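Our consortium's second objective concerns turning raw sequence data into structural hypotheses that experimental partners can test. To show how far this objective has progressed, the report includes one record in full. It was chosen at random from the queue rather than selected for favorable results. The single chain below, 654 residues long, was entered without modification.
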Amino acid sequence: MSKSPLTLKAIFGEDGLLARSLPYYEYRPGQIEMSEVIAEGLRQGRHVIVEAGTGVGKTLAYLIPAILSGKKVVISTGTKNLQEQLYLKDIPFLEKHLPVKFKATYMKGRNNYLCLRRFNQFRQQGLLFQEDMKQFQEIVRWAYRTQTGDRAELADLPDNSPLWREIASTTETCLGSKCEYFATKSFTARVKRAAGMADIIIVNHHLFFADLVLKSSGRGEAIPPYDVVIFDEAHQLEDIATSYFSVQFSNYGVEELIKDVARELSLAEVEEPEISKTLDALQKRSEQFFTPFVPVHILSQRPVFSETSGFSLRIDHKYRLSPRNLPEPSRKILPDLLNTLTLLESLLKGLKKPTEGLRNQADRTATLKSNLAFIMGLNEPGYVYWCDIRGRWIGLGASPIDISTDMRQNVFSNIETVILTSATLSTGGSFQFLKDRLGLEDALERIVPSPFDYEKQAIFYIPPHMPDPREPRFIDTAAREIANIVNKTRGRAFILFTSYKNLEEVYARLKPVLKFPLLKQGEASKSALLERFKTSGQAVLFATSSFWQGIDVQGEALSCVIIDKLPFAAPSEPLVEARIDQLKEQGRDPFYEYQIPSAIITLKQGLGRLIRSKKDTGVLSILDTRILTKSYGRIFLQSLPKCQITRTLENIRL
């Protein structure tokens, strides 16, 4: 990458390069301020934290200093939308207008790419239902012409396609350099080679931490070496990093292992009755082990009818595991399950002429056995143990309660410059909460406020006479209040809930009442719902956590955001409960030091959906009066953009 003598002011200034290149460019002092502190961190080799309010223009504010630094930079995003915006919009613009040459590339997790080895295996022995045949024929035609192998090119392929799982690249089945397609045709290898030659590599947080785990375990790497990482949407880091530092074992993991071993044996034309017998035993013992983890009250639930999937038992339940509530039948079968995994590993390693695929499955079996033993030990200090049930999937896991040490050792101590940015990183004007949670001790810090005039553009409505959200009558009162607000704003609203239960109950009450197009999360894909919302004009969208962030709807289509209650994480969620317990043991106040700051960051994300440009206006509303009546409410209000607060519905005028 060549360097340029241009200064940041010559690029971002009122008569600068951007002003001359972009027809609708708006000079923003905050954008220069952000770019300068990032450039300083890059020059000094220091870490940087920047909160950039909505409208600052943060992507160009970090992209340009990164490119001008001449260093190899990884940019990690929290959402696919931002990843695509960077690569398809911002990077081409900078390639065209910046007087400096650089190469950029875009990497996704490996399961987004076609694995030619698995694809050809499946073609040889795949058994398709009639309804799958048309879809598979489309994939076959695509596979012969695609240059990327990226499933995003298959527009009609469902997100949860079981067919794709059979032919996608996975960590568990990839043979790496020993694969026959590696040198010339492997799509994942091609992407990695391009990343090796690039100056800017755009990834997402999941891929970044998957790579970190690979490197720390000595099993290779997904991302080539780099000097700098920029985490955009950095408010998501703790949750995503925790999932990758966790140990997991699931019934689906066992089923996938059995299927892949059988497939490799068939393709190698190896007849091993003992292995086949062991696979049958593994299937049986896995079922005996996992079934008792499902509580009786869940098994007694009635099926739910969905217009898209028919009747199904909707199970979504997570609970903390301990020696006291470990199911006795599972405890008894555990030695047999571990012994079966040990036997399978031994048989696979003992084959006279094992293929690379079978060697791979032997290592995978050893990892599963190790994970199961670790989780069922239930005694590693600093970990919380849990069971998570989603439909037929039953997962067990052990997660670190505090990831600050892991982050400090694996990220902040190993990488020259780490830049954290988002619109929501501070609480009460401080980054201390974020730094404590992530183990960051020293950084250049800056809060760059939004250029939007919230006092003129938004009104903050907190209804009077709302009951406490924990009272049974809250749902009925909330439904009536939402109807009143939405009728005032003529639809055009996001109703954001902190739980699926509240969403379903309020939606059921309002569906017969509201005359606007109603959209509900789960009825279609996220992108399809957003498109319908934007085009329908007066739609009302009912949604939960996934719509609280990473959504950008500008203009009158979205003129109101209503949030049912302050988004405190459920204290019964295993990880939250364990973190609360840990802080109590340390003599600290978990409510003020953990629960409130976490809720503030989430609330700022949700309310941030409304004002996305200088022309946007609208209503922000929280149906939770604790923000005014409780002493901690002022901490929330201090952290939110300053705008006019009203408790009178008549003051809402759009």
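The partners drew two points from this record. The first helix runs from residue 8 to 12. DSSP finds 26 helices and 20 strands in the chain. Both points have been shared with the crystallography group to help prioritize constructs.
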